[in-house]
Task: structure prediction
Amino acid sequence: MSDPSSTVTVSIRYLSAIREKTGGKRQEELSLPRGSTLTSVADWLQKTYGMAVPGPSLMSTINGYGWNQVPGGLATELHEGDEIALFPLLSGG
Result:
């Protein structure tokens, strides 16, 4: 069994049409090595679901802020309990 202090667990929520890419999952927990970043999550999403995050038709947030709004961008280090949400961009006028 691995040492829990060596990993960080984040929650990923899939909203709206994004669920189609996850087989209907609404949410899941992802455990990564401590020191992992948003890039680690993006790589995992690409490998697991074929999602390009960030992407032109996809909004991605961490704790309510867009990935491009957090000071570290994709290099932002993850912390235990962080909440990531993915949803399609809405268009219209």
In short: The chain has a mean pLDDT of 91. The longest helix spans residues 38-49. The two ends are 53 Å apart (CA to CA). The beta strands are 7-14, 27-33, 58-62, 65-66, 83-88.
